[in-house]
Amino acid sequence: MIFWQLFFTFFQIGLFTIGGGYAMIPMIEEEVVRQGWLTHTQLVDFIAVAESTPGPFAVNTATYVGIITGSNVNGSLLWGLLGAFCATLGVIMPSFLIILLIAKCFTSFQDNRLVKGALYGMHPAVVGLIAAAALSLAKGNLYTSLSFVSASDFLSSFQLLPVFIFLAVLAVSFWKKKIHPVKLILLSAVLGIVCCSAQELLLG
After folding, report:
1. pLDDT tens, 130-176?
2. What are the residues facing 158 on neighbouring strands?
3. Which residue intervals of 35-176 are DSSP H helices?
4. Nearest Cα to 164, choosing from 203, 192, 132?
5. Spatial separation of the C-alpha atoms in residues 65 and 61, rounded to whole Å
6. What's this model's pTM, rounded to 2 decimal places?
7. What's phi and psi for 18, nearest 5 deg?
8. Inter-CA distances, 109 with 17, 71, 203, Å
9. CA distance linking residue 187 with residue 165, whole number of Å
10. Integer Cα distance of 118 and 195 in angstroms
């Protein structure tokens, strides 16, 4: 059943992803797109939404994928809510169980040389996963198509507007170091509306 598949898929994602929500993006992308639940473009769009809304990124994504996939079974909102429940339960269950185990045992092995070495080795892997997620998101936002046959295709599908918005928000964040993240999100939304409207007027 699709609901068991949703639970098991997100259980795997929650179990084998170390480093939090951003580090989960490559695995979420691989599983969700491969199984046809969302397209790459839809996933990139929702990542922006999930990062702009309250709650953990992984939970937001699992809930969204679950409700969309469940609703596709027969168009019923009830099935969508059941899909959201299964996917969300799957992604939070590994962390819940592991934290229970660690809370009970961590004090007895936190100074163990092997444990310290393992945690030390995981740090650069987490950075690599987050960097891979950033590159994947950049590709999805900077190019209208990810299928390049020639150099001309590569250049013609490149989008300048996302680069402009990224640089503008980056400049503001460096200029006003204590600016609240919500203000940056609202600024990027306003820039997106203005730039897209201007582009439609110029092309239309």
Report:
1. 787 777 777 766 766 555 555 555 555 667 777 788 888 888 888 87
2. 143
3. 40-51, 57-74, 77-109, 113-142, 151-156, 161-175
4. 192
5. 6
6. 0.57
7. -110, 130
8. 22, 45, 63
9. 9
10. 47
